[in-house]
Structures are given as structure tokens and as C-alpha cells.
Amino acid sequence: MFTGSMVALVTPFNDGKVDWQSLENLIEFHIQNGTRGIVPCGTTGESATLSHEEHDAVVKTVVNTVNKRVPVIAGTGSNSTAEAVRLTRAAEKSGADGALMISPYYNRPTQEGIYQHYRKVALKSASRSSFTIFRAAPARRSSRKRWRVWPKSITSPASRKPRAQWIRPST
């Protein structure tokens, strides 16, 4: 389980390109000052402005620089379920410990649509039981929760017998 203060890392740029040295320096600064986890490519990491290649490279660089000293929870959210699956698979392949996702917001899906979005990402992405997907923003009409999922372990909310584990935030 992830605990402690985690930083939503900014992605530094220089002349319109990712500044890789500044990114590595920023990671080292945060780890040396007690950060308990690094979150690259969230909304403070300019995820919406990064190309797919840049996004994957930022996550891989963070994972390599962190070198297992603290967890890396990669931002992999998207309005497109297919893109969220691709980003989450890439983050997992890079060695990230978890994924931070958002519920689709532009297309405003129903509760079932939001569930299906996360379900598909979970079933298509998480191959390790230790890989955790966090919901960054609450779905409509629900409280803020962290959602831990395992492949092929999720049932429809209508069944009232969900097998995915909901984990309450630490206090």
C-alpha cells in the first residue's frame, strides 16, 4: 500500500521540449527531501500537452531515475478508454508501481459507462497483482475512493457482489 506524501511532479520544458536533466534533478530533489512517491504525467505534469512518445518517455525516465527508492504512480488517465489502456500498459511495462486515472469528463458517461471505462483498463492492463489503479476524481454521485483492481476480478455494480477491492484512504 502507498503511504505518505507523494508529489504530482511537473514536467520541465526548455525551448518546447522536455528538459530531461531538469526532470532528473527534480526527482532527486523530492526524494532527498522525503517525498514518499512520485506521480509523473498527472495534470500538473502537462499530460494533455505531451505527445504519446513524450508521455511514455517521461514515465520511463522517472521510473529509471527513482530506481525503486519510492513508488512511481504514473498518470494514465484519458477520456478515451483505448488511450487509457495504452498509457496504463506502457506505464506498467516501464515499471511503474501504479496508475493514476481520471473518470472521462468531456464525454460525461453514465455511472455504468464510468465503471466500464475502469473495468476495461483494469482487465486489459494490470497483469501484476501489485499494480494499483487509482481513481483521481470521484465518479458522479460517489465519494472519493481509491480503487484496487485485479484482472478478471471485477463484476458489474448491478450484481451487488463486486470482487474488486475498494481501499479507503489512509488517515
Look at the helices and sheets and give the structural class. Answer: alpha/beta
Number of H- or I-type helical stretches:
4
**Largest sheet report:** 3 strands, parallel
Please give the radius of gyration in angstroms: 16 Å
Under the CATH scheme, which architecture would be assigned?
A: Alpha-Beta Barrel
Tell me the helix content: 25-40%
Q: Tell me the name of the CATH homologous superfamily.
A: Aldolase class I
Comma- or semicolon-separated keywords:
4 helices; TIM Barrel; 3-stranded parallel sheet; about 15% strand; disordered C terminus; globular; about 170 residues; 9 strands; alpha/beta; two-stranded parallel sheet
Structure description:
- This protein has 171 residues and is α/β, with parallel strands linked by helices.
- The chain has a single domain, classed as TIM Barrel.
- The chain contains four helices and nine strands.
- Strands 5-6-7 form a three-stranded parallel sheet, with helices on one face. It has a two-stranded parallel sheet with strand order 1-4. Strands 2-3 form a two-stranded antiparallel ribbon.
- Helix 1 runs parallel beside helix 2, helix 2 packs parallel to helix 3 and helix 3 packs parallel to helix 4.
Element layout with pairings:
Elements: E1 6-8, E2 13-14, E3 17-18, H1 20-32, E4 37-39, H2 52-66, E5 73-75, H3 81-94, E6 98-101, H4 111-125, E7 132-135, E8 146-148, E9 165-167
Parallel strand pairs: 1-4, 5-6, 6-7
Antiparallel strand pairs: 2-3, 8-9
Helix pairs in contact: 1-2, 2-3, 3-4
The gist of it:
The protein contains 4 helices and 9 strands, in the order βββαβαβαβαβββ. With 171 residues, it is of the alpha/beta class.
